[in-house]
Amino acid sequence: xxxxxxxxxxxxxxxxxxxxxxxxxxxxxxxxxxxxxxxxxxxxxxxxxxxxxxxxxxxxxxxxxxxxxxxxxxxxxxxxxxxxxxxxxxxxxxxxxxxxxxxxxxxxxxxxxxxxxxxxxxxxxxxxxxxxxxxxxxxxxxxxxxxxxxxxxxxxxxxxxxxxxxxxxxxxxxxxxxxxxxxxxxxxxxxxxxxxxxxxxxxxxx
Length: 206
Hints:
By secondary structure, the protein is mainly β. The chain has one helix spanning about 1-20; strands spanning about 30-40, 45-50, 55-70, 80-90, 95-100, 115, 125-135, 140-145, 150-155, 160-165, 175-185, 190-200. It folds into 2 domains: about 1-70 and about 165-200, CATH 2.40.50.140; about 70-160, no CATH class. Helices cover about 10% and strands about 50% of the residues. The longest helix has 21 residues, at about 1-20.
């Protein structure tokens, strides 16, 4: 029971951080997402080799937390689940998923909506409830409902699908794959209260 509560709490914390960071508005224009591999962690200073190839130093705030990401399957997506899907418009119409994040039940409804996302140019992030999930010869698709709207997204067989799990500071080793939702100050320095790390070699796809 204790382990279950710990896992749920860690998942909820990680989910909350990701959702808050995904809500783009003028008020949070200085929010940044740092994606890459850990170079070093010294005290409360984290250095990440970003996907762009540069070294980003991040100052971790007092009482900073660690959340984990683990692999999931498209078969885990059921009607009624709450998911976050980054997607791109397809040439033949509709949207195709870039990645799928399955939220824990406790986080259902948080951050609901559709918004621009910086995973790839022109990508968007949809946090929504799965109304139906369909399997076809070409893969899978899910119909999402949010704020009175509906959106259908196709999920190719090689689409990364993940969910949250517990993790801790010992998981933040050199080479570990992370995504950090940070805040960039006027002087260019970046700080953060949360580090989300892929477990068992998983690259956080969001």
